Structures are given as C-alpha cells and as structure tokens.
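Q: Could you fold this chain for me?
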Amino acid sequence: MRRASGVSGNLAVVALRLAGTLALAQDAVPGTRTIATKHRFDALLERLEKSAADNAMGVVATASASRGAAARGVGIPGNAVVMVFRNDYAVRMLAASVPAGIEAPLRIYLTENADGTGSVTWRQPSAVFAPYRNASLDALARELDPVLEKIVRDAAK
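A: Sure. Below is the predicted structure, expressed as structure tokens.
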C-alpha cells in the first residue's frame, strides 16, 4: 500500500479527521436540530421571541454574548440563547423529577451566518429529559417536542 505524502496527503488526513470530528459532534448531542433561515439575525431574534409568545410559551430570558461584546466595543457574529418555558409545565416537571429542574427553561440558540442571516438550534425536550428515565417526564417531553418545533418553524417562516 502506498502512503500519501506531501501537502495533498496531509490535506486528506486533515479532511478525514475533520469529517470524523463533525460526525462525532452530531452524534454527541442527540435530539439536536438546526435550521438555517432567510431572516437577518436581529429580525430572527424578534420573530423567535414573538413566536414563543404566540405559542403560549414564556420567554424567561434572552442572553446574548454578541450584545454583551458590542457593549464593550467588540464585534462578534450575532448569537443569542432564548430561554422558554411555562409555569404549568414547570410544576409538572418538578412533580416528576426535582433534579430535572436544572433543564428548565428550555433553550433555543440563534447564530448569525456569514451572510447575516440567522440559524436556529434547539434540543428536543425528549432528548433533554431522556437521561432522567422517568415516565412522567418522558410524557411531558413528548408534549413539549412539537411546541418547540412549532416555535422555531413559525419564527423561521
């Protein structure tokens, strides 16, 4: 077997390692979904917060490293974590598992793409709560999966 040498051989090794790393990263976070949108980042953030309210979920908080950096005079691509939940879900979650309380609120992550549009990433609640191996929590998560999906899809339209 002939061994690859030179720059092209090194590039092939790097490409294979990168592909393996990307595959591992996707497998390492089950239930994670990402969609690219046509909306500019700031507009997408507004649309997502409105969509959460329209779908009867409260926006508990929005955290943005890019806005924090901008306040210090540093420019980085837009990103924000929008945290959503609702008290009736919280009560049911805690009745099923107090330790699962660390998972609330559920997070939706927005990132700015190179062209200024935004992408949305979220973990399905069924994936978030799966490690607790609790039937009541699993039922709640199955109820929440389509709620988060609808919030994201409505914002991305």
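A (continued): DSSP finds six helices and five strands in the chain.
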